[in-house]
Amino acid sequence: MTNQAMSDTERSRGPGQKTDYEVVVIGAGMAGMYQIKRLVDLGVKATVLEGRADLGGTWYKNRYPGCRFDSESVTYGYSFSRELLDEWHWTEKFSPQPETLRYLNHVADKFDLRRHMQFDCRVDAMSFDEQADVWTLRLQDGRELTTRFIVTALGILSIRTLPRFEGMESFEGPSFHPMDWPEGLDLAGKRVAVIGTGATAIQLIPEVAAEAAQLTVFQRRPNWAAPIHNGPISAEEMAEIRKRYDEIFANCAKSPSGFEHMPDRRGFYSVSREERVKMWDRLYEEPGFGIWLQNFAEIFMEEDANAEFSDYIADRIRQRVDDPELAEKLIPKDHGFGIQRLPLETGYFETYNRENVLLVDASETPIQQITPKGIRTTDREYEFDVMVYATGFDAFTGAFDRMDIQGTGGQKLRAKWADGPVTYLGMMAHGFPNVAFIAGPQIAATNFPRGAEVAVDWITALLEHAWKNRHTRFDVTAEAEQRWFEHVAAMYKPFLLRKAKSWITGYNSNVNGHEYGKTRYNIYNGGGPKYTAWLAQEATDDYPDIVFS
Ligand code: NAP
User: Fold this and answer.
1) 2 pLDDT exceeds 50?
2) Is the minimum distance from the CB of 203 to ligand 1 under 6 angstroms?
3) Which residue's CA lies nearest to atom 37 of ligand 1?
4) Which ligand 1 atom sits closest to the C-alpha of 340?
């Protein structure tokens, strides 16, 4: 939209109501940053409200040792600026958190985005004025702001969840979620406990073991994991990557998962066992998610294929852990490989061969209580200097639930989603007009930035459509929302992940209503290309499922 179009927008505002902003973006992480860039380029009066003290979202807050993404760095950066692609050098195949945060700051500086952001601005509540088609946002600092449109970029894993053990407040040393890792914490000579063995714990456990005097890991359920095979990217390699960027992003757009890893389409049973093992041997030694995403689809859909491959990975674990009894404890028995989100690791299993590392099976001897000195299980008391609760996140809906969001007819979003999210294309919810979600629940599960760029471009086009036609309100129909929900739910059925005891099905033992078995359909399993086609069709057909006024 040009500046002229902007003044048209000003004129088209609802019955006599002036708003502070035309668009408010909530969240200054990777997604929110690209959204504000698009809006600023259009000359729209927009701002980003960020609850934290600076930009970067996930990469601002997660600073625990070993934190890095397990997307290939070159598929993780923004694709929208050739100049940015040409000037940025990713120094590692899988960028560590400090480098990713530097990257995001570089982007913000380059495009002068910071002046459109307000930090320490947590949104507590927002309500829609149905007469004026205006949202009022109430901030934690007591301020109120008005806006016509809202784009949420809250992150899918931004709300930490702590366990609910008795006595947690009594522990005398530092205890925290990895998201709150204390700056400069020195673990040398310390006895450290890590509770949890999810992707976060699997990244930090080898680092902590190398630094601390003693590490005790409390594992309730083991997780499958495979090597990341990180390494440096030289200047020469980066030059080659730059030549290939168009191809890289085109590959990501074609793949179901938004990576360059394409599933093997030959069919599990159409190749011999010998050939399958040869392929798995190769994939296990290659960097990244290939072992998960380049594998046969049957592994993720059929119990027998899954069991055969899980046995293969179990043997890999046995080869890496010296003590056979310990190896068995580290091999999941309650779920097959790749059913939960696969963590990638560096030396995770070998860490348990160290003399200073102890694994406590918290399913055999559950944690009963946190004491001033440490942890009491049903078996004994352990003493620690530091405790890390790597116990996960209130995924997808957690960040929405923490805001009091009131749409039409006094309806609250947290009530609408009490039993699980219901959305249209993961982008909007009926009864909450003029709000679009980037990375909302029920988006396609893909490499995050690839999906976020698609979402931002779609939302921006939707807003432009509204402005062009002088609409002050859009809302998706209840029918379209129901249709999408049913499709999302149906797309869980063919996949074994429907049984996952993880955030993919909304399980979180530390959040009421998220008990195992009450499936929440958090993601769309149809893959990126199919999802993007749905979005494109809706836009090309002039938004038949959205009512404008
Ligand atoms: P998570 O996968 O949900 O793991 C939480 C762990 O804590 C589980 O092992 C869980 O055991 C355990 N736990 C929770 N409450 C407990 C309790 N009360 N007592 C004992 N154990 C308890 O969380 P996460 O590791 O933070 O990972 C979440 C997601 O973040 C990942 O799946 C991934 O998508 C993302 N992530 C990505 C990266 C990356 O890109 N490299 C890195 C880290 C995280 P149960 O399984 O028994 O519940």
Assistant:
1) no
2) yes
3) 199
4) 32
DSSP string over 182-222: PTT---BT-EEEEE--SHHHHHHHHHHHHHBSEEEEEESS-
Centre of ligand 1 from the C-alpha of residue 508, in Å: 9
Find out whether the beta carbon of 476 lies less than 6 Å from any atom of ligand 1. no
| 362 touches ligand 1 (CB under 6 Å) | yes
pTM comes to 0.95
Query: What residue's CA is closest to ligand 1, atom 3?
Result: 392
User: What is the whole-number distance in angstroms between the Cα of residue 392 and the centre of ligand 1?
Assistant: 4
pLDDT band at 18 (very low <50, low <70, confident <90, very high): confident
Task: Compute, in degrees rounded to 10, the torsion defined by CA atoms 512, 513, 517, 521.
Answer: -130
Measured by CA distance, the residue closest to atom 32 of ligand 1 is: 341
How far is residue 341's CA from residue 347's CA, in Å, rounded to a whole number? 19
Ligand 1, atom 34: closest residue by C-alpha: 341
Q: Contact 212/191 with Cβ under 8 angstroms?
A: yes
Within 8 A by CB and 6+ apart from 75, the residues are: 248, 249, 252, 258, 259, 260, 447, 449, 450
List, in sequence order, the alpha helices (H) in 268-405.
273-284, 290-293, 303-320, 324-330, 348-351, 398-401
Q: Is 156 in the pocket of ligand 1 (CB under 6 A)?
A: no
Rounded distance, CA 199 to CA 179, Å? 13
The 10s digit of each residue's pLDDT in 51-71 is: 999 999 999 999 999 999 999
Q: At a CB cut-off of 8 Å and minimum separation 6, what does 27 contact?
A: 48, 49, 50, 57, 152, 153, 154, 155
> Per residue in 304-329, pLDDT tens?
999 999 999 999 999 999 999 999 99
Model confidence at 459, pLDDT cuts 50, 70, 90, reads very high
**What pLDDT, on the 0 to 100 scale, is given for residue 1?**
42
